[in-house]
Amino acid sequence: MAEQLDRFHCVSYLLCALTHASEKILGKYSRSISILAGRRFSREDIEAPEETDDPEKAVEILRKAFNERGIVWDFAPFKGERENLIEKRDGAEVMRLVFRTCMVRSALFRNAHEQKESMCYMSHGVFTGAMEKVMPGRKVNLEVLHAGPNACLKEMILVDV
User: Fold this and answer.
1) pLDDT at 133 over 80
2) CATH number reported for the structural domain that contains residue 45 in this entry
3) What is the pLDDT of residue 91?
4) Domain range spanning residue 99?
5) Please, is 50 exposed, middle or buried when counting C-beta atoms within 10 Å of its C-beta (0-12, 13-18, 19+)?
6) What integer pLDDT is reported at residue 60 of this predicted model?
7) Which helix (H) or strand (E) covers residue 69, if one does?
């Protein structure tokens, strides 16, 4: 296990260094590249065992699909102070999600890189690309409401295509 963890830390360091360099060279465009890379990964590598139109059920399906792939990523719907879990806004459905255990956040803190940059956007691409496989016919986006050391709060925005 220690050998696997060391290997993971080396890979995470390399990935952090590459994304940090891309941010310096490409500026704001590195975020778009990172999202596209994440989406490509999830579309090619994450299998969705079933499809649904229900956002709450889709979150559970996706969590299981990631776990089956060996990706431990603790995210869940978060109602907070809202009356309803899912809210309608400008023709879209919006659901808050709390991301607790996050491999990207762990890699960033270990390697002293900031949150809400390219690495976070890569994970957004992984999540949204996979969610679009679970919810076909929907365009999925994530917006960061809060990025913190213990958890991040994001809004998942679902639009019919």
Assistant:
1) yes
2) 3.30.1380.20
3) 92
4) 2-160
5) exposed
6) 95
7) none
